[in-house]
Structures are given as structure tokens and as C-alpha cells.
Amino acid sequence: MNQQPWRSLDEFADTPEFREWLHREFPPFASEWPNDVNRRHFLKLMGASFALAGLGLSGCTRQPLEKIVPYVKQPEELVPGNALYFATALTLGGYARGVLVESHEGRPTKIEGNPEHPASLGASDVFMQAEILNLYDPDRSKSVLHGNEVTTWDDLLAVVAAERAKWTANAGTGLRLLTGYVTSPTLLDQIAALLKQFPAATWHAHEPLAPLHATTFYDLAKADVIVSIGNDFLGPGPAQLKYTRDFASRRRATNEAANFNRLYVAESTPTNTGARADHRFALAPQALRDFGLAIAKGNAHPKSSATVLDDLRKHAGKSLILVGDSLPDELHQFARAWNQPLQIAQTTVSNVKSFAELIRDIEGGKVETLIILDGNPAYDAPTDFEFAKKLAGVPLRIRLGLHEDETSALCQWHIPAAHPLETWSDARAFDGTATIMQPLIEPLYDGKSVHELLAALTGNVLTSGYEIVRRFWQVQHPDDDFEKFWRRSLHDGVVAETANPFQVLPAVSPNAKPEVEKPANGAVELLFLADPHIQDGRFANNAWLQELPKPFTKLTWDNAALISPATARRLNLANEDVVELKFRGRSVRAPIWILPGQADDCVTVHLGYGRTKAGNVGNNLGFNAYALRTAAAPWGGSGLEIVKTGEHHPLATTQQHQSMEGRDLIRVSTLAEFAKSPEVIAHLGEAPPTASESLYPTVKYSGHAWGMAIDLGACVGCNVCSIACQAENNIPVVGKEEVARGREMHWIRVDNYFHGSPETPRIHFQPVPCMHCENAPCELVCPVAATVHSSEGLNQMIYNRCVGTRYCSNNCPYKVRRFNFLEYDRNKFENAPVLKLLRNPDVTVRTRGVMEKCTYCVQRINRTRIDAENQNRSIRDGEIVPACAQACPGQAIVFGDINDPQSRVSRLKASPLNYDLLAELNTRPRTTYLAKLQNPNPELKEP
Amino acid sequence: MAQLFQRRANGIANAVIIGGVLLFAGLCGDIFTFGRSDYWTRVDEPQAQTVPFSHQHHVAGLGIDCRYCHTSVEKSAFAGMPPTETCMTCHSQVWKDAPVLQPVRDSLQNGTPLRWTRVHDLPDYVYFNHSIHVNKGIGCASCHGRVDQMPLTEKVQPLYMRWCLDCHRAPEHHLRPTSEVFNMGYETPTNQIALGHALINQQHVAVEGLSDCYTCHR
Fold it and tell me: What is the pLDDT of residues A727-765, one digit of tens each?
């Protein structure tokens, strides 16, 4: 068995292609022009520009005069040049996660988690970070449309008023409202009012990824043993951040051994949760179901379920069984009963009518008017509903949405929705905690909120979102100090005392019960999962999320049919082979990706791709897995047929990019070994050379010395550090072709290592930013001193000095430097004028020919330093938080002054778990890692 | 065949070579000097403004403090430009019908901001912060000159990096007691160097990192 961890199957097999990739600093053609500029074109351009330069010295003009434009009336709280922060919330599948939004002179630029909010705890997920790009998305719908004609909100109001007269006469017969998952107290109140006013009207909900079961939330921090059966609780979801924080709290390097939890995961396809397991069982969906039922019924099972059950029983009351959405109801019931002691919140299915009932009503010709609030059912409804076709049978169709998407195209009326950062609203977290959402900016395109549309439907006298939301909360708090309550709730971002462990939140009722069936022998099973970054397709037009490498596959801009190495061998398939997936009479063509750790005889496809009207970013990427998804089999099933087409579809994966070539990059040990001898971590790698082995003098840092420690034990590989860094540091998106050339720009990447056999690998994550080496190899080779050391030990990168030789990147053993091969700040993803509003004004926007890399968020260091010096005090420990550390839900990244022995980072670095990456090179990195400890059950043999 | 080149051709060749070198050196020198000239850096070039605002009148004549208009100079990177409302606090009472102030009145009435021409414009890759300079004892006049003597505001320093670094490397030459920062007529004392060193300690000026690249570039 290969003892070294590996990142890709090519690396594992040590193929010539991999060695070729590895031995070139920049991949072949990395310096080539994009396809649309050929050599002849280039010479023409250069000739012309030389001629112009010769004639008019075009590059040499005096600095142009700029204007300063002050306010007419300056807002009271605003100090020009200083950011303000406002608390609000964003929703994912209806559930709120509290956020603090940074605003520069009225333009929101960055989203952070709200520490006061139970579903955020100050951290963020990738969707929260990327939401700011959705706000400025140039493809957002900009006007009310009637058919294809631009019209006005007033025209729509006139139509609605005429309809309302009809509804008043016939009690709303034929009126149907279709929403996603709703937790907004105001909206629920409005819907209730609508249904009261028009009793024959009905409300339906559709959420493509909604669980089919009541959802229950638990206190993970108290669980000693956790068993996940196909439940990716550390992955995207309403309580992801809380779960990650709680899980990490039992995995920290500084923890006592007794405080470590143990995680068993049985799953079909690797997830973030599976990667963190102490024991991971790769089981195809049917086998997974059997494994779960064996535990529920107490039967023995070939895959060690007896040992797992023993461990659960030993920790009864302090153990959890978390069951995935695709598993049968009886397993959920068993788990709920078992988990009862640790339950903290529950949502139950309320009386909202299902989407399936709406389809039946449309078929029966009972629907006269359909109002679709958000969602995108024309794209993501079960394919056997044929929603798009049936929708045409509804006489009046009105849609409120952020984009003119697949559903809008089928409606007569389209209303541009206001973005959550543009409108007043409210929403509840998974535990019921309410947040009043406040706008940061006036609607950019005159968008309307759901509340305003509902008010128009009911003919409410209050028409603005502000009045509607405020009135609702005023009714809840009729006492005199409402103003105080209102201001406090807005300021804190949470409404006090609204958390309720057993709150009944309306959930989406199931479309249909999935059937339970036995697979034929040897049949391949199909599994649907939400895309880790695009989700159900709602984030398809978000270029940050598209380019963020997906965990394990490291694919960007595409989805693929994931299969295990053994199945690929059996079916004679290779990566990027296009196959036809035939499932119960439907078929779709998809490229293959072979994924270590995937269960055998199971194909996983991610939903959310293949959109046709997402926008300029998201159109026609990947394949549409919804084409195979029916109401009866929402999570897949057996009977998949795979037909090789002989075609090829290139995929852009970053898995091999920036490889540091073997060595001891990732250090993992077990709790037991570490307890026996704490030196085990140091022995895992080569001994670092002594300081005297360097020819360069040791520099003393008398003031601050900034450093970072990354606790691999607390990292769950959620990728949020990457995207938080992108948002903070104006990092451009480069597009699929450029990624394939190895030109992606992320300053912090999350490396993904497999260890062991390709069938049952252990999986590890390692976030890699710049190491800020004290003996930095990059600095020695820069001919123009564009990268030099600061007095606090930062490895500075000075863009205005850089001439783009790329020697520094060549000499960097960690591969953390990124080069602007082209004018990425002006490419098709970045050049829309509205995106200028998104830029962080404290960070330079880089241009072509310049090297860039992680700065430890020097703009935040400087900001804090200036604030502290202005107040004549020293910088407090923990006062400077880089964007990655702030977003990290596991609090795995700790930044601070290593000259202060009492700082958190110094104490972490003193741990025997602490190690330097490539210490043998004597670079003396300021960023160090804390090895990951696992806590396997001694009674259970591998895996 | 007669000689193609006459004897004096040697002289011409020498003259051309030497002249060429001199010409090239001279041209380089010219470009160098030109790049530092007041014309190129716009030093001493009063900028035309929508309203011909006179600092001389407002500061020296009326004795208005810098911070009355540049309100954020002590707490933000940006010193702040007065909103139209600030102008109108006085000009709704004095000179309220002056034709020269028509743009100001229009601005308030229509809600359209005034557009001033920037006099001090640093390159976009420089992140200058007013508050730290003012709070550590760099006088306004050290960079902006005697604004109280300018009928129309003009630049007095080239704002080149070398000029910034002169002070960042040896701030003792320019430090004042913080109480004198906004004093336009402050005279550098004869014992400036000694005073400067004392002020570095007294006013907690962190000299060590001042010439780090990241202090201004990021």
C-alpha cells in the first residue's frame, strides 16, 4: 500500500502525465494567449500601439485630474473612509443565518457572520460569502416584464386590482400561491391573511432539496459518539455552522483526550462529514439502508454495525444517530427516539399544501391564477410532473424572481425581486430565532420584495416593505417601548427570546413517499445530491461559487457522474468519458469522474447544473441531473444503465495544481498514539535544520511578529476560507478554460489528501495560504525587490514594483503565489460596471503581469494598528482577524502575535501537535499546522 | 580613386559620437528633470473649482479650524470634504445672494453634490491615512503648505514616494506637538531634531515599521 498521502488517482498511480504536470512550475501553455488572440493579431496590435506610442508618447501624460464629490447631506453615523456594519440575515432554503454586512459609503462590500446569531456564531458558509456577488450580479432582472415587453409595477398593480375584484366575488377560487420554504413571520402572517381573505385560494410550497421528514436539530457538542448514516451534517444546511463549531469543539488540538468525540460515517459518496470520520464505510444506497436498519433493529451486519451499535449503547444519552434524507422513515423515527436527550430544535410539517397537489389542480383545470414567489420550479421540479408544459395551461401566471430564469420565461408577468440586502424582511433560524432583515442599499433595479407583492395581492394599505414588516412586529409588541425593541432587534440582528426548541416551523410536505425496493444483483444505483456549491441550481450564476473547487473532485464550472475506481475499471471508463445515464426511461449525457472513496456500483450526480436561463455565467454548464429525477425517486434508486458514447468532455479540476510533491505535508495520528508519545507528530516528518544551517543571519523581530496556526483537527474542508478571501481581497474569477490551464487565483486553497487505497481512503483537508516564511525563497530571486520582508515578518508583495518575471512563484515550495496572466479584472466575469461597487476599497485591484498572494489581510492589520495607535494603546490579542479566520466555522485558523507568549497563536504553536510544512527546507514558515488527531475505535479494524 | 572621406570626417565622426552620447544623456537628464518639474507634478498650479473657494479667506481671514470642514481627518483615512450643508450653515446667512455661491445653493436645492477638482491625488496603489499622521503630530501645513495663504488651493509638494520616505525614515525632522498640528503658522523650532526625538517617545510613534512597503502599499 502506498504510505504517502496522495491527491489524485494520477498521483497515486504516478502516471507520466502527473510527473509532467508536477515538474513544470507553470503547466504547458500557461503563458499562452487565450484562443481569441492569435500571433498575427498580436503583432498587428503591437505594431499599431508602437506607432501610436511613437507619435504621441501615449503612455506619458500628466496625471489626469480627478473629482471629489462630497455629500449634500452627510448621513449622521457615517465617517467617510470608515466602514459601517449592519446586522441582517440571509436565507438558505428558508432558514436564516445571521450576518453583519460591511458598507462603504452606502455600498455593501463584504458579508461576515453575526456572532450573536445562533445559526452563524460569527462564522459564515460559502453561500453567505458569495451572496454579495449575487447582489451585484449584472444579469439580475431589471424591470417588470409582460411577456417580453418592459412595463411598470403600476401596470401590474392594475392587473392585480382587476383580479382582486374577481377573487373577492368568488372567494379566490383558482388562486394559487407557490413559494419555497418560508420561515418569515411577516410573510406567514401575510399568507394567512391572504388565505383568510380568499378562502378558496391555496398555498403550495416547493423546495427541490427539502427533506421528506420532520427536521430535528441536536447539540453536537454534548455527543461523545456520532453515527451518520448518509447525513452530511457538516455540509451545507441550516445548522451547518453551528454543527461545525460544535464538532470542532470536540476535536481541537488543545482539548483533553477525554473530550474528543468519535464519528462513524456510512455514506455512498465522500462528503465533508465522511472526510472527518474516524471510521468511514463507503456503501451504495441499498447497502446504506441495510446498514442503518441493522443498527435500528440491533442485527449484526457484515460492515461492523455491531461494533458501532455497541459504542452507541455504551454512550446512550450522549450519542447521536444522524440519518440522511434519502433513507426510510422508520430509520428517522428510530434516530429521533435515540437522539431525544440531545435534541435542541425541531421543525414539523405544517398545513402548507404540496407541490404535487398543485400539479393535480393544474391538470384538473382548477388553477386560474398562479403566483410564483422565488424558486425555479420550471427547472427543478420532478421531471415527471412536466411542470413547464402544464404551466402553460394556467391562464394568469405571475412570477417574482431575481433573474429572468426558466420559470419567468413561462410566465406572462415577471417582477424583479429585491435582493435580501435591498429589502426589509424577516426570517427564522433553525432554532426559531427570528431576525429582522434590514436593507443596506436601495434596490439597484427597482426590485420588489415578497411582502410588497403579497400586499398588492391582498390590497393592503401598507405597501412598502418597511411598513409591512414594522407593522407586523408592532402587533407582536403592542407595549410602549416598541421603538426600543425595534432598534435593539435591528442592531443585534436577532429578536430577543424568539428561540424555541420545539418551534413548529412550516416545512414543505413531501411530494410523494419514495418507494422501497430491492436492487437486482449487479445493478448500478443512482444517487442525487445537491451540488456542494451551486446547491439546487440557485447559485448557478455566481462565478465565485462556480470557480470554487468542489471538495474531493476539485472540479470547477462543471458537474460529473461520480463513480468508484473499481466500478470504472469494471465498466472500462476513464475520467472525462461522456456516458449516457439511462434511468427508468429517461436519459442524460454526463462526463465521468472517478472518485476515490465512492461506493462501488453507485453513480452520484449533482443537481443544479445544465441551466439554460441562469445568466451569462451559469448558462449551459454541466448537465441537468433533474432530467432523471422523478417524484417517486427523488434521491435516485437502482436500475441505472451506463452507456459509453465514446465522446470526451474536458473538465477543469484543480486537484493536481500547486502540488507540493509528496513529503510529509499532512500529518495525522490517533489520539491513542499521541497520548503514548506526543513526539509522534514531530517524527512523522524530517527534522528541521537548525538555525545555524542557514547562510542568512537570523532577524530579530522586536515589535509584533505576525503568525498563523491552522488546526487541521478543526478543519472540515468547507472551503469558506477560500471564498471569504476572494471577497475580501478583490480576487478575480478566471473562467473554466483558464482554470484548466492552472491559472486559478485563489490565495488560500483547501488541499485534499487521500491516504491508503483508492477504494477506502482516509481523506484529509489542508488549507494552504502563504506561509510568510522567515527565510522566504521567493524574496531571494526577485530581481526588482517586489517581494521583501516587513519589520513584523510579513512577506510583502508590492504590485506596483512587480514586473512579472514569475521567478518567485517558481521558487516557492508551497505554490501559493498566483500570477495575473491576463487582465482578469476586466474579463467577462469582472468587467460589468456594477461590479465596481463590489470591490474592497482597501485592497488594490491587480492587473495583468503582476504576481499576487495572501497578505495575511494586511489591510485589516493596518486598520487595527492605526486604530490602536490613534488611541495610544497596543493591539490586543485576537483584534486582528484575517478574512479566512473570521469566516471559518471550525475556528481552525488562528492569527496573532507570536512574539507574545500569551497570545492564542503562540499557545497553539507551543503544542506538540504543531508542525511546519516542509520544515526540512529551513524556510521557517510563520503559518504552521496542528496535526489532525483521529479517535478510532480500537475494537474496530480498518477502515 | 580619391579618398572617400576627407580628414575632417574623423572630427565629424567624433563629434557625432560624443554629441550623440551627450544628447542622449541630456535627453535623459531632461526627462528626469521634467518628471520632477512643477509642471509635471502640478506643484504651484492652482486648480479651477466650481466655486472659487478661498482657504485664505476662510482660514486666515475668518479663523475657521481645518476640522470644521474636514471633519474626519482625525478618525479616518479620508480627511473628509464638507457636505453642501456645511457650506450652507453660514452661507444661508452670509453672502446668501452672492452669484459666486449659486452652485452651492443649487446643490442643496437639487440634491446634486458639488464636484471639486482634487488637488492632492495619490496613485491608487497608495493607501494614505490622514488620522494616523494628524494624531502622531504631522502638521497639516507640512504636506499641504500654507493653505491659509492660498486664494485657490494648490499643491506645494510633489507627493513622490521619495518625499514620503524622507519623512518616514526620519520623522523627527517634521514631528510637532499634537497641539500644534492644525496651527498654520507653526515655526519649526531650532532644536527640532531633539524635540522630534522626544516627540517620537512622547507621542508613541512606531518608527520601526514606517518604511515597510505594506505601510502604504497593499
Answer: 999 999 999 999 998 899 999 999 988 888 888 888 999
- The per-residue pLDDT for A36 is 57
For the cut 90, the answer to whether the pLDDT of residue A504 exceeds it is: no
User: Which chain A residues have a beta carbon less than 8 Å from that of B214?
Assistant: 790, 794, 796, 855, 858, 861-862
Q: What is the pLDDT of residue A56?
A: 45
Chain B positions touching A860 (Cβ under 8 A) are none
Helix (H, G, I), strand (E, B) or coil at A43: helix
pLDDT band at residue A297 under the 50/70/90 scheme? confident
H helix intervals, A428-551:
450-458, 465-476, 482-492, 543-547
Cα separation, B10 vs A265, whole angstroms? 92
Q: What is the pLDDT of residue A269?
A: 94
How far apart (Å, rounded) are the C-alpha atoms in residues A892 and A879?
16
Q: Sign (positive/negative) of CA torsion A626, A629, A635, A637?
A: negative
> pTM here?
0.91
pLDDT score at A254? 79
Question: How high does pLDDT run on average in chain A?
Answer: 88
CB contact under 8 A, B218 and A858: yes
pLDDT of residue A2: 42
Contact at CB, B125 and A862, closer than 8 angstroms: no
Which residue carries 447525513 as its cell? Answer: A231
H or E stretch at A756: none
Closest residue of B to A75, CA-based? B83
3-class DSSP state of A104: strand
- Residue linked to cell 410539517: A349
C-alpha–C-alpha distance, residues A12 and A580, integer Å: 28
Tell me, what DSSP letter sits at residue A271? -
A114 touches A99 (CB < 8 A): yes
pLDDT in tens, A224-252: 999 999 999 999 988 999 999 999 999 98
DSSP category for residue B58: I
pLDDT digits (tens, 9 = 90+) for A117-150: 999 999 999 999 999 999 999 999 999 999 889 9
SS (H, E, C) B168-197: HHCHHHCECCHHHCCCCCCCCCCCHHHHHH
Interface test with A, best of B214, B215, B216, B217 (most A CBs within 10 A): B214
Q: Which residue has the higher pLDDT, A830 or A410?
A: A410
Give a three-class secondary structure readout of A526-561.
Answer: EEEEEECCCECCCCCCCHHHHHCCCCCCCEECCCCE
Q: Grid coordinates in use for A229?
A: 448514516
The torsion angles phi and psi of A399, rounded to 5 degrees, stand at -130, 135
| Coil vs helix vs strand at A351 | coil
- A92 φ, ψ to 5°? -130, 115
Which of B76, B123, B206 is nearest residue A869 as measured by Cβ atoms? B206
What would the grid cell of residue A598 be?
A: 465512492
Alpha carbons A596 and A760: distance in angstroms, whole number: 7
CA–CA distances in Å: residue B85 to residues A195, A267, B77, B115: 50, 65, 22, 14
Q: CA B95 to CA B142: how far, in whole Å?
A: 32
- Quote the percentage of chain A above a pLDDT of 70: 91
Tell me the mean pLDDT in the region A328-342. 88
Given a cut of 50, is residue B154 above it in pLDDT? yes
With a cut of 0.85, is the ipTM above it? yes
DSSP assignment string, A785-850:
--EEE-TTS-EEE-GGG-----HHHHH-TT---EE--S-GGGSTTT--GGGGGGS-TTSPPP-TT-
Q: How many CB atoms lie within 10 A of CB A57?
A: 9
CB contacts of B74 in chain A (<8 Å) are 870
Residue A522 has pLDDT above 70, yes or no: no
